Amino acid sequence: MAVGILLVGGFGTRLKPLTSESPKPMLPVAGLPVTEHQILAAQKAGIHTLVLATSYLSEVFTPYFGDGSRWGMKILYAVEKAPLGTGGAIRNAAQMLNLENLGDEPIVVFNGDVLSRHSIADQINFHQSKKADATLHLIEVEDARAFGCVPTDSDGRVTAFLEKMDNPITNSINAGCYVFQSSVLNRIPLGEVVSIERETFPALVESGRPVYGYKEQAYWLDVGTPAALFKGSRDLIADDFHAMPGCAIDASATITGKSSLGSNVTIGADVQIDDCIIGDNVTIGDGARLSHCFIFHNTVISAGVSQSRHYLSSAISEPINLP
Ligand code: GDD
Ligand code: MG
């Protein structure tokens, strides 16, 4: 058994314009919000209580996830009026978990923009076998510059934490899923802006506390850019496309490129869709052609429209280029 904190309060700046109307973690990937994929993974690992640490567009989360009973867990919400940084957000959310009553029950923290198929349960077991203060999931990437660089010794003990460096000293990076002892979170100052990557982890390692790296090279992706979000959605789809329940697709339409359709999407005659992410309750008129487009929830696309590499939403008058 474990409790969890999901960091979903960032601005998603690199995902603009996709994050103009939705927080990054609520963007759909293969028909479900990124957050929901993570909740399903947390549930599998026996996490019974999860706090969503929200800030930017915080009001979007509660109507969707409610009290969590749909996922068989308790979901709570911690709202930061102004973003507290990753460490400050974790500390703020931990207030809702009654740290003093947790004892040795581990706290699992997730970056809210990561799709990972590693075993959270194995990571917790590893953490407990090492009697660690904190255990980070680590993966190897070709180019570590955009990530936290995390060297370890032969026993898996973390020897440094170097956030985003130009010349990474190892390809082993912080994959954004941590297991903590509650005593560690208690030491983060409350109500202050703190970076877990630039302040808390380096300080823990320097002070000689047991911080470990759990290495599992499972499927892993940070969906923090438009290209990565599209890739994440395609990676989860086995066929030409995936449609959520309630879709009505005309028999003459062609849908390819591992496109994803949210729930209650209506597709007209002779429509061509390739490599698109389409939200819920979208209607696409006859003969429309859409290639590599992101179509926000509740949008109506007129008949005959032809668009490539655009963000489309009923809330905006002109389609916006996708980078
Ligand atoms: N609640 C809250 N408040 N959440 C926040 C805040 C905040 O002030 N700032 C960031 N977050 C959330 C974001 O929404 C995201 O889910 C997560 O924290 C990580 O922030 P990113 O902005 O996506 O960071 P990154 O991708 O540049 O780097 C992080 O992730 C890498 C792995 O994907 C770092 O943890 C790196 O060390 C790591 O390698
Ligand atoms: Mg990220």
What does this structure look like?
By secondary structure, the chain is α/β, with parallel strands linked by helices. It has 2 domains: 221 residues, Alpha-Beta Complex (Spore Coat Polysaccharide Biosynthesis Protein SpsA, Chain A), CATH 3.90.550.10; 83 residues, UDP N-Acetylglucosamine Acyltransferase, domain 1 (3 Solenoid). It is 20% helix and 29% strand. Strands 5-4-1-6-11-8-12 form a 7-stranded mixed β-sheet, with helices on both faces. It has a 6-stranded mixed β-sheet with strand order 14-17-20-23-26-27, covered by helices on one side. Strands 15-18-21-24 form a 4-stranded parallel β-sheet, with no helix packed on it. Strand 2 and strand 3 form a beta hairpin. The longest helix is centred in the first third of the chain and has 11 residues. It is elongated, with a radius of gyration of 21 Å. 46% of the residues are buried. The model has no long low-confidence stretch (mean pLDDT 95). The site of magnesium ion (MG) has 4 residues, from loops. Magnesium ion (MG) binds next to loops.
* Helix content percent band: 10-25%
**CATH C-level name of the largest domain:** Alpha Beta
Envelope shape: elongated
The CATH homologous superfamily of the largest domain is named: Spore Coat Polysaccharide Biosynthesis Protein SpsA, Chain A
What structural class do the secondary elements suggest? alpha/beta
CATH topology (fold) name of the largest domain: Spore Coat Polysaccharide Biosynthesis Protein SpsA, Chain A
Report on the biggest sheet.
Answer: 7 strands, mixed
**Beta-strand fraction estimate:** 25-35%
**Annotation, overall tally of beta strands:** 27
| CATH architecture classification of the largest domain | Alpha-Beta Complex
Total number of helical segments? 8
- Mean pLDDT comes to 95
Low-pLDDT stretches are none
Span between N and C termini? 42 Å
Please indicate the count of domains.
2
Q: Give the strand order of the largest sheet, numbering strands 1, 2, ... along the chain.
A: 5-4-1-6-11-8-12
Radius of gyration: 21 Å
Named once each, the bound ligands are: guanosine-5'-diphosphate-alpha-D-mannose, magnesium ion
